[in-house]
Amino acid sequence: MAIIGTAVYLVSCFIWPFRPCSRCDGAGRFRSPSGRAWRYCHRCSGKGAQLRAGRRILTYLGNTRDRGTRH
Q1: What is the pLDDT of residue 56?
Q2: Is the pLDDT score of 69 beyond 80?
Q3: What is the pLDDT of residue 65?
Q4: Distance CA 35, CA 12 (A)
Q5: Residue 27: in which H helix or E strand, if any?
Q6: What span, in angstroms and rounded, lies between the C-alpha atoms of 45 and 14?
Q7: Residue 28 near residue 47, CB atoms below 8 Å
Q8: CB 3.0-4.6 Å disulfide test: which of 12, 30, 41, 49 passes with 18?
Q9: What superkingdom heads the lineage (predicted)?
Q10: What are the percentages of helix, strand and coil residues in the chain, rounded to 5?
Q11: Three-class secondary structure of residue 4 per DSSP
């Protein structure tokens, strides 16, 4: 059952590689402490999205395979 769950998670990471930023909740910015201005989120660089952990694993495995097959 765990193998099926892992496979489904990796397929979903392949289709949807990004998740909302956990700090700004996907907005890419947040209000300053005074509440008058806003600034970009430092964690996601103002994009509002971060790469999912499963997608990092898939990218690493793909790069490892590519490094092993180059001549």
Answers
A1: 92
A2: no
A3: 72
A4: 37
A5: none
A6: 22
A7: yes
A8: 49
A9: Bacteria
A10: 45, 15, 40
A11: helix
